[in-house]
Amino acid sequence: MQFNELGLSETVLAALAAKGYSEATPIQAKSIPSLLEGRDLLGIAQTGTGKTAAFMLPSIDRLVASGKRAQPRGCRMLVLAPTRELASQIADQARHYSKGTRLSVATIFGGTSIHKNKNDLAKGVDILVATPGRLVDLMDQCYAILMGLEIFVLDEADQMMDLGFIHALKRIVRELPAKRQSLFFSATMPKTIRELAGQFIKEPVEVKVTPEATTAERVEQRVTFVQQQEKQALLTMMLKEIEIDRALVFTRTKHGADRVVRLLAGNGIAANAIHGNKSQPQRERALGEFRAGKVKILVATDIAARGIDVSGVSHVFNFELPNVADQYVHRIGRTARAGNDGVAISFCADDERPYLRDIERLIRQKLTVVPLPEGFVAAAEKIKSSRVNVAPSRDEQNGRNGRAMQRDGRRPGQPQRGRPGGQRDGKGDGRARGDQQPRRDGQAPRPEAASGEPRPRRFDAPQGEQPRNYARPKRKWQPRPTNGGQRQGGQGQGGGRGR
What we know:
β3 (about 105-110), α5 (about 115-120) and β4 (about 125-130) form a beta-alpha-beta unit. The longest helix has 16 residues, at about 50-65. The strands form 2 sheets. A 7-stranded parallel sheet has the order 3-4-2-5-6-1-7, sandwiched between helices. Strands 10-11-9-12-13-8-14 form a 7-stranded parallel sheet, with helices on both faces. It has helices spanning about 10-20, 25-35, 50-65, 85-95, 115-120, 130-140, 155-160, 165-175, 190-200, 230-240, 255-265, 280-290, 300-305, 325-330, 355-365, 375-385, 395-400; strands spanning about 40-45, 75-80, 105-110, 125-130, 150-155, 180-185, 205-210, 220-225, 245-250, 270-275, 295-300, 315-320, 340-350, 370. It is globular. The chain is built from 17 helices and 14 strands. By secondary structure, the protein is α/β, with parallel strands linked by helices.
């Protein structure tokens, strides 16, 4: 369906034409007419289906038609997004679609100056795109007032739940006016998300673009079974041999993402990492270089990847399978956008097979199993030898989760005490019995007695004698003298000294 058939204003149509858009996507064609009527909406759509335009285009027309002005420290339309990158992306599209109007757009999220956020809200703003945490901070300081809100949009609701924003969402919704238009979007719709939607929207129009929890049809999904310690070599080999436009590599942890980038650099492959430990300028720089094509490999965690809307992502590598199956849907949704094809390649270790079963059950299909490439063993050894000078990460030093324990209960690097495995022999104080006693200070072992029994410790008494008490005797308390340093009963009696 064409955009000019949906009832949009000429101003919005001109902005769409400037970007070369003429035909609406399915979610846009199904959503825009109902939103122009002021209906609430429950949208089930994956990322990359055009849902930002689906709610932004009719909202701009409604804001222009109402002719109201934003109140000081308030906004007329609020869009909540789970991550900074997604909030920034929505705001950029809102600015483009509202060209030709006088609507103002602002963003507030963590990592930016809160004083700038306060200044942006001081006179009021028409369209505000925010993350829940920073918005609640401004509300608590009375710099954000939402009573004049006309349109409320909750985007990526399932990710909001995963990140633990439920309490912030309820805090925000309590401040919203009862009379408003509410829009609720999510890529998946389990029971918990549907219950959450019931608290925010009333008698909504439900729009489903694809069946729940299914993946994009244009994505070719593969899986390769490989040992955990061989994943880095396999990734390096594939990135060198496969023709890649842009590739996203997903890890489960922040330190894991940094480690992958460091090891790729050791093998001559440029890559950037983006995750929660990076500052906002670092995240923007990494995303900018990826979008411009200067660096074709971007390693990301699930949280930071939300909002990475970059055209031309040809491959998605699941370096580590997500332990929540829904995340797989979001990961591979970063490729095969705008009608293009894409490839999603997952590396599955033995301990990740349960995750793979959950994913295949969720998407209702089996991933194509691809064996290890020919010559992988030799190539892996060569790749390992080429990175000997790469500094180990914290994960490599302390175990996968930073706090790994060995089987005998010791931390990595901690010296072993007593018998192997920390066992005791049930005699004495549990010290090791054997030919020699290990010393903890690196000195020579303590010699044994002729009988084979351990040599007595320093303060052990000879056999048949009472042990000596080396403790300092306690001094009996006496009142402070008041006669010039002499105590009652004569000078120096009781062991006291003059003061």
